[in-house]
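assembly run, all chains below
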Amino acid sequence: MKAASGTVVTMHYTLSDDHGAVLDSSRGAEPLTYLHGHGNIVPGLEQALEGKQAGHKSQVTVAPADGYGEINPQAIFEAPKAHFPPEVNLAAGQRVYAEGPNGPITLTVVRLTDTGAVLDANHPLAGKTLHFDIEITEIRQATEEELSHGHVHGAGGHHHD
Ligand code: ZN
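ok done. output:
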């Protein structure tokens, strides 16, 4: 079976940056399982896997525009101290959570200022070229329920209460 919209792909992956530093990997852990063709992985990787079969191994380079997007300078801004709960001890590099216009968002504290903190709402991998080393281990047809939900159920997938 080939990876196509409506199939469930299971794969191992290692994600590295331009310097070869490993950012994330499924090696030594459970492989990643996702519903192909539904935007559950970055577009550049999904396109590269289209039509591939179990056993396929490759190295895929994904430009920022096809990955987590370019860095949006407007998403880096200063927030006053009053916007943070008083019990929070802010530190550079810390992730904080806020309610965005389209649901919860994660921000990174860039640095502290005298009056608050500079926050970055860009994805941590925005602006980065992604280097994937992938191995497809299994491909199956998605169930009707998975297709209607737009994600995978069961091992490696979504669990509903
Ligand atoms: Zn579901």
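The pocket of zinc ion is lined by residues 149, 151, 153, 158, 160 (CB under 6 Å).

The chain has a mean pLDDT of 93.

not gonna interpret more than that til we talk
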